[in-house]
Amino acid sequence: MGEFGRGRDKGTIVNNTFHERFENWVVEHGKNYLSTAERQHRLEVFADNVKFIDKFNREKKYGYTLSVNHFSDLTREEFAAKHSGATPSSLALRPSNQLNLTSVPSSMDWRSRGAVTKIKDQGSCGSCWAFAAVAATEGIVKIKTGKLISLSEQELIDCVTASSGCDGGWSDKAFEFIISNGGIASESEYPYKKVQGKCRANKIKHNDAAALRGYGTVPRKNETMLMAAVAQQPVVVYFDSNSSSFQFYSGDGIYDGPCGAELDHAVTIVGYGENGGKKYWIAKNSWGTSWGDNGYMYIAKDASKKSGMCGLAIHAYYPII
User: How much is the mean pLDDT over the chain?
Assistant: First the structure.
């Protein structure tokens, strides 16, 4: 099978080189396994992943490289089950009446403008939908008020009944909760637990660290309009992350495939630019700083397909305050 069906070879032979690399990797990432059998299984998965990474980098078919990271003992299927979790809404899209096409700079990076909080880590909870919505909200709050506040993903995971907590959800439903709730708590008031718990929104003393009055959507399959939106604020997008190349993306280069458009993961686009004639989006992910470029991804912009690279131009949302 191709990239999307790559599984572990049965009867993997693990030589001493892989043993040594695995043991060093286990120490580096603080891994613990419950049994000798589990440790052996993870060694075999690790060896297969390293072989894939090395082969990918040797072939140089794409404009980026892969690297061993903290996900290297997971199969692609295990990784997808634990670290994605976004589903685009099937509801009618809201209008994009705030987008200004007359003043769009050629490049933008909201990180350099102080509108992006530190990289966070969703862990093995399928809560990317909450992290993406929070990052976009943090950005617009900073842009409009001058205050950069780390907000609570946990409140959304616990309280957005229209989503499924750690089993996936919708970023637009997160925005709707913030609107109807009169705001969202700060991360310090309602910290992240990596599991879904009982909603405590009514018990939080200060549940209005940030408030929204609405949200908009970018016209589908239109990267020009997406660029106009990102020029004004960070924007939530969905894309297809169901590939080992996503799992091991190193941050060295611009991601240009392989991928489809089966949307399963939400990130926040915090900028765009061009390097060596290649245009890219800057995506803030929620897989920790050991993934990508310290947690960020550079993904090809203005792709030949109208849906955008990996489908990122199909569904895009931005909060309004």
Answer: 90
